[in-house]
User: Fold these one by one.
Assistant:
Number 1:
Amino acid sequence: MRGARSLAPFAVFAAVALALELSLPRVVADSSVRQLLMLGGVNVLIALSLNVINGMAGQFSIGQAGFVGVGAYASAVVVANLQARFPGDLSLARSLWLVPLGVLSGASASALFGVLVGLPSLRLRGDYLAIVTLGFAEIFRLLISTAAATDTGGLTSLLAKLGGQNGYAGPNELGVPQIAGPFWVFFAVMSVTLLALRLKFSGWGRALRALREDEIAAAAVGVDPTRYKVTSFVISAFGAGLAGGLLSIMRDGSPITQPDNFSFQTSFDAITMVILGGSGSVSGSILGAIFVTFTIKLIELLQSTDAVQAIKASHEWLDLNALRMVVYAGVLIAVMILRPEGLLGERELFQRGARGR
Amino acid sequence: MSALELSHVSKTFGGLSAVKDVSFRVPAGSIFGVIGPNGAGKTTVFNLVTGVYRADPGGSLRMGDVDLGAKKPAEIAAAGVARTFQNIRLFAKLSVLENVLVACETKRATGLLSAALRTAGFLDDEAALRERALELLRVFDLHALADHAPTSLSYGNQRRLEIARAMMLRPRVLLLDEPAAGMNYGEAEGLEAQIRWLRDEFELTVVLVEHNMQVVMGVCERIHVLDHGESIAEGTPDEVRRDPSVIAAYLGDEAAEDE
């Protein structure tokens, strides 16, 4: 009975997500707003994944975009090729097998890289580890964007099939099928949130936090630093790959998966989300992700207003996209001064008891 | 039967010899003291036994038939060697109860996936471990503080919490590094009784490094004395107390001659 109860929440999530899938196009007529909502969902997934490394494990990774990118490309390739091989309408029924295949291959590919990047984390700490993670993300992005087909074949030619700087648009350049609707995005958000909370309040999460507090003491009570650190990287990469896997096949998204979507900027946004919300807090990461998503959109909207357009016309040098960085910087500095632990610290919204559960 | 056996164990840091050719056997079920003046290498011996440092090649460190010398700290802990630290090392951001619970990860029957899915097995496991952790907190009179931050505890309570955490591992050998440091006379006396009780109740072997001679002489059945990283004496508390080389090490050569 209790075994069944442990799966029950996922059934509820599926029902809620299905309701959203059916009602969202009617409630929200503007497809760009729908896109924003779903993008917010993907950002929540990215923030939750980064929270495992940066928050719970207490390691500093600034290369989350790399994991998201690996997932995005893997998922795009799998889904686009399957769609080309077995053509059909992009219906919800079809998405029931196509989306899980794509997203899970994205997440798994990313998890493999998680092992690779996680291994140096055993010897490196702080800034040095940050450089490794950043290096991984940038190498991944540059490898893809600079790969050109050669006569001799080999790895570069293989990578060139991903479209280089122009992006990947499927095997026939028809675009990556945008098959994952609100159902998938919101089902993933709800499920991953629950899993993140469960992991945080499980023995595993406890051991990970203990390791963050004091590695020697944790090892002295049987917590193997190697195993836990690498596992945390793998889980984090899996989550980021899942987010990327959704991103590249998301309805109302872009049919072309581009390497520049996974630049340092994306990693930095992810860090902002986690730190704003409170490192180690699941609900904090969610709030941070929502805040960041909507600030980006708000500034875009501001830019399209007549008043701002007029200013822009008279001052050509003005780059309003850069304004976003100014807003972030201001908010981050304010948070660091007023609440160094972030909005929620390590706590959760609606947490039962003092530290219970 | 010896629970812990060191033979010809040495450790040098750079050119500095911290522990030199130390050998001793800790009889199973005994309370064994390792003493010596500051810098004698007592804590280094603990760090060698628990794998924090790797001993120089040549010697051997064994617990029964388990070779500890080749194992990593977490493996040594899982094999049944638990310890406390001289400069208390608690997990500051975990509650008192969580501090104890961390020490049961190696004994958990269910894995990460069952934690994610909250299977019945996981919940049973968790409930049992939590029950045991609360029981240990009760033993050390800390159960009322289970939800508190460890940093809010008194010094003596922090030391006791470290012991409770170590006991959660169900160790065969418990290493206590200066458990009485910072305790007053009454607390130290209580500690002696607690150490004896622990040994009897859990059928442990206890090894302690301690400066408080009241505690060492009161609770230890055998004592091994180190000075400058070398063994200088071993015996019952009375034998050690009368040993001229021990007196010399603690008080200087002249004191030993006067005796």
Note: Chain A touches chain B through 35 residues (CB under 8 Å).
Number 2:
Amino acid sequence: MRILLAGVSHKTASVEIRERIAIPPRDYVETVRRLLAAPSIQEGVVLSTCNRSEFYCTAADPEDARRELLSFVEDLGRRNGHSLESCLYTKEGEEAVRHLFCVAASLDSLVVGEPQILGQVKEAYLASSEAKATGFTLDHLFQEALRVGRDVRAHTEIGAYAVSVSSVAVDLAKKIFGHLDDRSALVMGVGETSKLTLKSLTAHGIRQVFVANRTHERSVQVASEVGGTPVEFARILEVLREVDVVVSSTASPRPLIRRDDLGAVMQLRRNRPIFLIDLAVPRDVEPECGLIYNVFLYNIDDLRAVSEENLARREKEAARASEIIEREVERFLRWYRSLEVVPTIVSLRDKIESIRSEEFEKAMSKLGHLPDKDRKVIEQFGTSVVQKILHQPTVRLKGMENDERARGFIHSLRHLFRLDDEEDSKT
Amino acid sequence: MEILVRVLRWTSLLGYACASVIYLRPLIQASGTSRWAIRLLVATFAVHTAAIAAGWVGAGWAPIGSSVDSVYFFAWLVVVVLFVVEAAAKQRTFGAFLLPVVLPLIAFSLLAGRGRALPAAVAKSHWFEVHALSAFFGYSAFAISFCAGLMYIMLARQIRGRQFGRLFVRLPSLELLDQIGYRTVSIGFPLFTLSLLTGALWANQVWGAFWRWEPKETWALVTWLLYTSYLHARFNAGWQGRRAAMLSIAGFSFSIVTFVGTSLLAKGKHSF
């Protein structure tokens, strides 16, 4: 098999190295053209995200191609001032296919199950395909990889459960409110986690953000940072009447939102649901607030517990995803092997030969009066017609034996002559 | 013809049973919503429609001509409303909750025999048609609000209990469920009210009295009061969310008793 890949990923290289070799999507086309300039490399795809840079190719001679591919990637590394020797991995054939399927299914991701990678694989493939760098084999390989990625997503729950504190919070907000488009939020105090949470919330549609801090200057400063409206600390209860989500992480030693106050606020809200995310230790929201009707209260421990539980779930789902991938690798290999030159020539010859002998028998059953000598002549005639017809295609195919492009011809040939039995023709 | 109708009805029962299983699977196992779910449901619905049409045109069973036929027809309406809601909410989870409601209705209509036919003189009145149809549409709207209520309570339990299971992933948001529950009651309630009014007018025509405190009438009144309190609580007391969901579950339970239960248990004149 002559599918190869070389690359670095978060599993082998630190972020310093990864960012040096990373190729922005706008440079995909140029990079893949340079890759194709290597004499043995016939097709190529460049995939580069913040967690990996990988180079896929097919080649006539795997030994030469591997050398060329490695020196190409090493060059890229050197150009950016770093040796990649220790962190570069290469895979070939079945291994390379399995790796790409795992990448597309997000099993090889830093956060297993994260959804962006499938789109990134697609983008990489489309760029290379537009640059006419892909051919019969890589086209099929990448289309299959994208399909496998979608299948894994549809048939397992690998991406169903949020695994970071901020994404768990957003998931909850969406389960409570549906779309977050017209919703508003109040942020009290600002820490790293609350900034992240706020960022995810606004990324999912929340428009209006109020910011309250102990000192008003700080409120104004943070508000301008996150694009919100500063409010004075004393007006929190007023704001609580309006907002849907509260993210709290102040350093206050005592709770800022008390059950009685919130109860009164809920009356004024006419029980409109409110979602309180209390990231502070000690807590900013009295735990009893969670008992009030239509108040959904989560503290930092709740969110962490959920995210850990979800991580365990993802790992369980990853095992199921691997099963799907094994099946698909097997299927791809079956397809790939069916396109080898020699077996195709053999089955083409068998097919034509069986037609010839069948037709000969048919004719003989009507020509029973002929003497043996004449029969021999007729048989000879049939055999040499078959030989002559098959001669050129056989020679040509044999001449392409080490050429990946032969697979396109073989595919057509198998299709036109129906060389595949029932099961294979389906795949 | 009668045999054909029987066969079609049994086929529809089988179809809905299979569809229920396929609809429920994603809530129980880690599997995506199968495309076969909707295909099978549409096919079964076609059989269901054919059974009603064949019964009506061929065997002369008007869809609402007897207590048993009308339950079968009601199940059909519920599925129509299910299609509308699933399309409007872009959600495929309602079927998982609604089909298990449809299933016993159909089983009931198959196993309860032919049922009592309406006396021809009674059925002739136009009040009767309006009465029965508005009641059916009202009940099917209530059926949806019942499902939305059930889904709301299950999802809210998971959110509050910090136990995120498969339901958490599959169900739509609390907000959407609450809105669907509310809107379907808002549509069902006036229809149901209309059926009570026309029912009274019709009763006056046929039996010479507007209201006779028969079991069915009494249960209908209780049901009506429940939904009145649902709307009242929402408008005036801000009862959105879990309490509203519980009321709509109670409301539909009473509807079922009113609609099917009183025909089974009591021997009033009305009996369907």
Note: The longest strand of chain A covers residues 41-49.
